[in-house]
Write a structure and sequence with these properties.
By secondary structure, the chain is mainly alpha-helical. It has helices at residues 2-32, 34-37, 40-48, 52-59, 63-70, 73-85, 89-97, 102-120, 143-155. It starts with a helix and ends with a helix. One of its GO terms (cellular component) is SCF ubiquitin ligase complex.
Length: 156
């Protein structure tokens, strides 16, 4: 009978130890996650200092970061979208007019703005054949965007 009670006491002790280890782990994770510790305004201010690539990477860190970043449309995504608007004003205005959020509008136009900027800045001027264009950087664009690029090329 003593052996049984000793085993039961050992299993209880190990259960308590495991539970306390799990609790400490959760507490440490929570302490390391500033999103859960700081007021939302401070967290948003920190995230607002990130560029778009860093912001997207941060959203992949954990579910709490993703939630804050994804759901802060006008505070985090609007400034990023307005930067892209400098290159693609028609596209941004059309998407916003269609009811897309700032984040979705940015997603829809970010790569296009990069390619359009390269074209408009003359990076692809004097291309002799389609094989000289970098395939990975190209992005599908509508006729109006190609018209803007053509006008810029003709002015050069």
């Amino acid at each position: 009978m003593k052996k049984n009670s000793k085993k039961n006491n050992n299993s209880r002790v190990s259960d308590i130890e495991l539970n306390s280890v799990d609790a400490k782990k959760k507490k440490n994770e929570s302490q390391n996650n500033f999103v859960e510790m700081l007021p939302l305004e401070v967290t948003l201010r920190i995230f607002s200092l990130l560029d778009i690539q860093s912001l997207c990477r941060a959203s992949l860190t954990c579910s709490s970061w993703n939630s804050v970043i994804k759901n802060s449309d006008s505070f985090l995504w609007k400034p990023q979208c307005l930067t892209v608007r400098a290159v693609c004003p028609r596209e941004i205005d059309d998407d916003l007019g269609s009811g897309y959020s700032w984040r979705v509008t940015l997603e829809r136009n970010y790569r296009k703005s990069k390619v359009k900027h390269e074209w408009l800045s003359g990076r692809y001027s004097n291309i002799c054949s389609p094989t000289n264009l970098p395939e990975k950087i190209m992005y599908p664009m509508d006729a109006d965007t190609w018209g803007e690029i053509l006008e810029a090329e003709l002015e050069r």
